[in-house]
Amino acid sequence: MQQYKLFINGEWVDSGTGETFDDVNPATLETIAKLQKASVDDVSRAVESAEGAFDSWSGTPAPLRGKILFRAARMLEERKEQLARLMTQEMGKILKETRGDVQEAIDITYYAAGEGRRLLGETTPSELPDKFCMTTRRPIGVVGLITPWNFPIAIPAWKIMPALIYGNTIVFKPASDTPLLSIGLVKILTEAGLPKGVLNLVIGEGSIVGGAIVNNKNIKAISFTGSVETGRWILSEAGKDMKRVSLELGGKNPIIVMDDADLNLAIDGVLWGAFGTTGQRCTAASRVIVHEEILPAFQKKFIERTKKLKLGNGLDETTDMGPVINNLQLQKIAKYVNIGKEEGATLVLGGRTAKPLPGYFFEPTIFTDVTSDMRIAQEEIFGPVLSLISAVSLDEAIDIANSVVYGLSSSIYTGNIKNAFKAIEKLDTGITYINAPTIGAEIHLPFGGTKATGNGTREAGTTAIEEFTEIKTVYFDYSGRLQKAQIDVE
Ligand code: NAP
Questions:
Q1: Nearest to 354 by CA among 305, 328, 386, 321
Q2: Which CATH fold would you assign to the domain 3-249+454-474?
Q3: Is ligand 1 within 6 A of the CB of residue 406?
């Protein structure tokens, strides 16, 4: 059994704890690797290493940093299939989706590499003569990146690549359920020529290793994707040191299906949005708000389609839905199914664990007669459980959609352009799709949400620069005399 170490200052090193933990395939329950658990001291060493590398890396011209990323992107392309297969074994989602996950990492790596020649500032006229005004971008310093298990390479790449191109150095902690893809990513970046110390990988328990990153005074910014509970704790802890924090948290994403929608298109979309990645996407659709006129027809057809989904090993190309990530998550889903029944919702499909293989499988599950005040319609379940909610009008559907604490993604199926624009305007989410499900973000657009989904920051695309740079405003006076702004302007 292969045992993996930590990556600090350009070397694979033993952890200080001497302890290991198992990486388990959630479909088969086979242990696929052993990982060393980092200690708080290991995190300190990783931070020192990142601090040591900062001057040289931030002083490297951004287009040269970009060259390393271009090489890494090509290597990711070459290893796409191998990484996708490993990901399916490590976290269970089907090959089609794990290939997509790796592709997202490839896309963001190319995009960030290109940013090396596009690190733009602003110039603007001064109010005084012979004076030049501009802004430039500087890296923040050592940044701490903490990621979840549901996109084991895409989310790390979303954070690592922009952080690198803008000149930061990194201490990175992936989820304990999916460390192997992060190891693969670190190896690629190292082979692509990333200097030692620039990227450090520490693996281990969230509250200990993640907590040590959050509390380390020499880390200047934290980028975190995960649950609201952890995000809230990070925000309050990191706030004590005035760290910059960017949070991408949970969702309870609605799809509205209007009476003028293309029903078959909507059913295709809801099926993919609700049960893709076994419902374990932050953007997964967990509520479908259907116009009452078409609810019976929608429900009948949708149940028929859902019944056909095949559960199994994601490595089998005929599988539609893999397992959930671990036993804790399986128990949480089962608990919410009971809550739904107790609340008076009608369970029309699924609701039970399944055993196509020894692992953590749960049947695709549909509740009807759900009202928006029920817990199953309010709380993030993060599994293949969908609530169907009836609405009499678009206004009511939007009110229901907005009635949750989250605000990540939303969608509307409609043939009416007025409905579409009203939804764009009124749905209180960071992302809205028209005639497409709530999942499917592209890397060159900002990603993030409103309300409890985060703290207002956006990742990826054109907004990644805000996450990982400081703005420097420069006033360059070449008049040769003292000129006073606001005073000498008459
Ligand atoms: P989580 O429990 O919050 O864990 C996320 C990461 O934080 C893991 O690396 C975890 O380490 C670490 N962690 C746990 N406790 C910590 C602490 N006290 N201090 C610092 N780090 C800590 O979330 P999860 O269950 O893995 O992920 C699912 C959640 O992520 C869902 O709510 C989902 O909606 C959200 N998510 C959001 C987005 C988005 O972009 N909005 C994308 C994907 C997922 P361990 O793995 O070692 O526990």
A1: 321
A2: Aldehyde Dehydrogenase; Chain A, domain 1 (3.40.605)
A3: no
For the CA of 453, the nearest atom of ligand 1: 41
pLDDT above 90 for 489: no
* Intrachain domains 3-249+454-474 and 253-434 with the same fold: no
Out of 48, 104, 248, 380, pick the active-site residue. Answer: 248
Which class is 253-434 in CATH?
alpha beta
What is the reported pTM?
0.96
Phi, psi (deg, nearest 5) at residue 239 = -60, -30
Q: What digits encode the pLDDT tens for the residues 100-137?
A: 999 999 999 999 999 999 999 999 999 999 999 999 99
Domain range list for the chain: 3-249+454-474, 253-434
Q: Which residue type sits at 120?
A: L
**133 given a catalytic annotation:** no
230 lines ligand 1 (CB under 6 A): yes
Q: Is the CB of 150 under 6 A from ligand 1?
A: yes
Ligand 1 and 149: CB distance under 6 A: yes
Closest Cα to atom 37 of ligand 1: 249
Phi and psi based region of residue 104 (left: phi greater than 0; alpha: psi -120 to 50; beta: remaining)? alpha
pLDDT tens figures, 255-310 = 999 999 999 999 999 999 999 999 999 999 999 999 999 999 999 999 999 999 99
Give me the amino acid identity at 137: R
